[in-house]
Specification:
- The protein is an all-alpha fold.
- It contains seven helices and no strands.
- The chain is rod-shaped and about 105 Å long.
């Protein structure tokens, strides 16, 4: 049983291990340094390597699977927040339009009432022609507001303003969550791009070695 267990351990240790993110980044920046012409460029590459590894360590990201899982998680969370914020933006825009139409309705209603108070048809038509622009705006506002009038002919202006303010606060809170996730995702994508390049380079190197071995 002991020999069997030892054999299992040897087999496990002999399996090729997937390179860590630090390994891949080291290979990438090592290749860049090999082709760098100046010491300044080499120092810059080493600094980028150190900064990236420190960032990944702080985030507890050590393997390609860790990185891809975090990217997926961030993308899902961002889509959730964007959908929620988009719904709030749409409703705030709707409320803004309703409040503007209500202000226009209130401002122009005296002109409409004045026209209706004119008994003589010719004078009423003359008044209507003189105030055609204002009356057109009034009718458009009334048409948009019509579904929202109470039986007493009032509009829920206070309710709309309260809802707008609450939505604005909720949107700002969600954006405060969204912004750092988006910024972190951009960093992760930069790391992922570098890691993908390093993996391609390793695959190309392995393919060339295999081809040379077959030629021999």
């Amino acid at each position: 049983a002991l020999f069997g267990w030892l054999n299992e351990v040897r087999e496990e240790l002999s399996k090729p291990q997937a390179p860590t993110l630090a390994d891949l980044l080291g290979a990438y920046y090592g290749a860049r340094n090999a082709g760098a012409w100046s010491s300044k460029a080499k120092t810059g590459n080493l600094q980028k390597f150190a900064d990236t590894v420190n960032y990944l360590t702080e985030q507890k990201l050590y393997t390609v699977d860790d990185l891809e899982a975090r990217v997926t998680s961030h993308n899902e969370r961002i889509e959730e927040l964007k959908a929620s914020m988009g719904g709030k933006q749409a409703r705030m825009k709707e409320l803004k339009d309703l409040l503007e139409q209500a202000g226009r309705y209130r401002e122009l209603k005296p002109i409409h009432d004045q026209m209706n108070a004119i008994k003589w048809k010719s004078k009423r038509e003359q008044f209507k022609a003189t105030h055609e622009g204002e009356l057109r705006q009034f009718y458009m506002a009334r048409r948009k507001l019509e579904p929202h009038f109470t039986p007493e002919g009032r509009l829920p202006l206070s309710k709309w303003r309260k809802e707008r303010d609450e939505l604005k606060q909720a949107y700002q809170k969600e954006y405060a969550k969204y912004k750092p996730i988006r910024e972190d995702l951009m960093k992760l994508y930069q790391v992922k791009s570098t890691v993908d390049t390093a993996r391609r380079q390793q695959e190309q190197t392995q393919t060339k070695r295999r081809d040379r071995g077959m030629e021999r």
